[in-house]
Amino acid sequence: MATKKSSEKKSVQSADLPINKTYKLFINGAFPRTESGRYFQLDDADGNFMANICLSSRKDFRNSVVAARSAQQSWQDRAAFNKSQIVYRIAEMLDQKRDLFVNEMIQMGYSKSASDKEFTAAVDLVVYYAGWCDKYMQVFSNVNPVASSHFNFSVPEPTGIVATMASEKTALTGIIQAIIPPICGGNTVVVLSAEKYPATAISFAEVLATSDVPAGVVNILTGKRAELYSHFASHMDVNAVVIWDAEKADAKNVGALAADSVKRTHFYESKTPVVGNPDLIMNLQETKTTWHPIQNISGSKSGY
Amino acid sequence: MAKKNDTNTWSLSPAPESTSHIRIDKKYDLFIDGKFTPPQSKKYFKTINPATEEVLAEIADANEKDVDRAVKAARKAYTNVWSKMEPKERAKYIFRIARLLQERAREFAVIESMDGGKPIRESRDFDVPTAAAHFFYHAGWADKLEYAFPAKKPKSIGVVGQIIPWNFPLLMASWKIAPALAAGNTVVLKPAETTSLTALKLAELIRDSGIPDGVVNIITGAGETGKALVEHPDIDKIAFTGSTAVGKMIQRSLAGTNKKLTLELGGKAANIIFEDAALDQAVEGIINGIFFNQGHVCCAGSRVFVQESVVDAVTRRLEHRMNSLIIGDPLDKNTDIGAINSKGQLETVNKYLELGQKEGFEMFQAGNEPPKKGFWCKPTLFKNVAQSSIISKEEIFGPVLVMQTFRTIDEVIDKANNTPYGLSAGVWTDKGSKIFNLTSRLKAGVVWANTFNKFDPTSPFGGYKESGFGREGGIQGLSAYLKFD
């Protein structure tokens, strides 16, 4: 199945026809086709047909947001330790599928050594973020020494629903970088895969589907950025928009539309190789500060 | 014997704060590059006392050229002086400002009450001391930033444009300027056009501190001036506090630029009273939540949710307490509710009062008859308000409280969160586990449990959702004025 072109040629002679995978979307834990019925053709590096890929529509995006919203609170409420284990489980499931991903990447134009490297970096990245799930809150929380007789503390809380577009530069680390940091922080995600690398994105969805990630926490679309920018930016139930490697004009349009509901917007330039960075978690967190009176602490007056 | 009309049980003699020791000039120019200079627009506008409608002073109206002058001065000061100064020296200037403000605290409090209409009790005990505390707290950060952000190599951003509202003029100016300076930036600040005076007095004090020219520039004017500041190409960051509508315009206008942005916008906070709360304290909390500063507070507890079993007891106590509120001369030390900040804002509030009655909700108003002159609104309560009504959805920004009831915890969480805003919330109950259930479920940046409307320089303040993004105060607030590797 992996090196399809050569194996197909062989298979005609050997009557050993491979079962080609249908690449579909990943919404609410299921693999539906796009409701629009549209597709675009993905060719392999040699220009031969590789697969028909779903060309996602506005409606697919909106369905994904509904799924992400209904999954969000319960995902946020899961214990940090539990989230950490689930993300680590993603790494476990991913690591099992090295051949699948490496072969897909080779088909989509990676060299053997580059795809090996990309795959190893991808697994490492997931493991890195798995470890952050139960630590970022400790590292980035504060007890604040207010001058009045109150106990006051600030903790990070997930922003909510993150609509994101993965970098076009890498086949696997790009989409992992778009998905994993937000979900480590208790957000749910709707992600548009790289237009160039939809196959690995959907194969990654298969990894997520077997990693105890609850339905709706991650929703993956394939399609064209240009068609979906305005929908990502203008949906009123999206809390943050994260675009990797956006063109300047697109960033401007997305930023302007996002203002209608004061969305948090982040336009990141991806670096290669992709390395872990807790800012990607923290930039999708709100700070919540809680106050409660303390019964008379002597001497704690705010006078001057 | 209790009399029927609670307001008649006793009366207090007038106790006005003296205005003899304050100085207000007839005319104020723009504070640019360490000097007060006339505006190139050659235009001035009047600022009035909203309690008397008397003119206090004339204020310069900065145009685009004036904004450009201010930004250039700030850039020059950033490049040549402030960014090169040793952080510990930066700190000393900011400490100095804190001390100067404390020394002149009473003068600032009186002017704040005259220009903005807030009771002297609040400007004296809250606005001015908290403003000074912001300078004092942030000063010490200047040479300790690497400890606040380990492994991130914090650096100043450059020239910061700051636009502030009219509800806490001096406090907002201070909590914007102090962290910006501590982080090593220079500042162009624009106060709101109805309340420029204390910002300009602060400019005098900043000049007296000996801080290098151009590090802080204060320019006055209305929306057009703010727009010119936002759109100036040499600004590196905008920090805005004000309405959600204007915040959205600014976010839109900065889209696609490299300018950083933080927004502190509107709110419609839920203040939730459970049946097991200490009801007398909770009623004080409701009063403080909505009538503090005439309700001109973005985080005001403007929606009160009362558990059904105690709604009668709470309503009775609340109305009784509202009847004891004294409305009138902001400079009187016994005044609880001062003047509405401007004629325009009074019209807005009155529009909502009409709307609430038109929507069919029972309105209760309390307090003594306000003075004839000036802008006044009696403390107002709308009872049995529907979740879908306009007065429970839109920010009124006045002394107007809407009351809803609830039965279960899940119900009140749903109702409280069912708003595009998310700035603050309050919870009143004696049960600790219930408090933490609520405080973790309410989508709001600040949650007050068994208290309300508390502020501190060490405590991050800011909202979720359409209440804005970024925090002010604390370590989180500091990070908004820094860039990282």
From TrEMBL, chain A:
Start and end residues of each Aldehyde dehydrogenase domain: 41-266
Keyword match Oxidoreductase: yes
Gene3D superfamilies assigned to the protein according to its UniProt record, in alphabetical order: Aldehyde Dehydrogenase, Chain A, domain 1
Keywords, comma-separated and alphabetical: Oxidoreductase
GO molecular function list: oxidoreductase activity
Top-level taxonomic group: Bacteria
Name assigned to this protein: Aldehyde dehydrogenase
Organism: Cryomorpha ignava
TrEMBL record, chain B:
Pfam families found in the cross-reference section: Aldedh
GO MF annotation, one: oxidoreductase activity, acting on the aldehyde or oxo group of donors, NAD or NADP as acceptor
Domain of life: Bacteria
Keyword entries, A-Z: Oxidoreductase
PROSITE patterns in the cross-refs: ALDEHYDE_DEHYDR_GLU
The keyword Plastid is assigned to this record: no
InterPro entries membership: Ald_DH/histidinol_DH (IPR016161), Ald_DH_C (IPR016163), Ald_DH_CS_GLU (IPR029510), Ald_DH_N (IPR016162), Aldehyde_DH_dom (IPR015590)
Record-annotated active site: 264
Record SUPFAM superfamilies: ALDH-like
Start and end residues of each Aldehyde dehydrogenase domain: 37-483
Family membership noted in the UniProt record: Belongs to the aldehyde dehydrogenase family.
UniProt name for this protein: Aldehyde dehydrogenase family protein
Record organism: Cryomorpha ignava
Phylogenetic classification of the source organism: Bacteria, Pseudomonadati, Bacteroidota, Flavobacteriia, Flavobacteriales
